[in-house]
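Folds vary. Our protein:
___
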Amino acid sequence: MNDIIMECSGLWKNYGGMQALRNVSCRIQSGRIYGLLGPNGSGKTTLIKLANGLLTPSAGKILINGEEVGINSRKAVSYLPDCVALPDWMRIYELIKFYDDFYEDFNAKKAYQMLESLNLFSGQRFKTLSKGNKEKVQLILVMSREAKLYLLDEPMGGVDPATRDYILNTIITNYSPDAAVVISTHLISDVENILDEVLFINRGEIVLSDTVDNIRSDNGKSVDALFREVFRC
């Protein structure tokens, strides 16, 4: 039986008078890859930041491995933000050492193997890389941890289509069966084949939560097609 890695119960997040999340309840189980899907401003990044402890709920609870978000939960979460957030002045090998020193579960050997696969030289200074290569390095660092929960916010936003297959393969081959992956993305057709379950979120509310197999059999259409139908402008 899969363990519950993340659980949200009646979760609300307000920014002043604006409700970014409204009464969100969901469960994320180990051994599964989830797509967190919704239009811009729907609450995807807010939910991911709450799970990572970068924001605090206005109401409700979010648990990671049965514990409220805090020091212990952060040790279990590997987070990829939707923007590049690494020091420009460091070289890639210095970033790897930094992660290796900071995270007990970091696997430097795995990081170097992925660098080689992407033809990236560890001596390059981070600021000299293209936007796409910066995102690749950031993903490599995140996926080189042996975490329980991987929170990936737009992991393929700035990379070319030819690299997306490698990134998806990196995701599915670098997390263990006792971990879970949550991917927030607009590139639904690209990620659909690796997803086990999806959460549709709109205006801060979960409007659909189901397995990919059920969506295809019950609706007779792909996740991408259903998303376009549900969120048609």
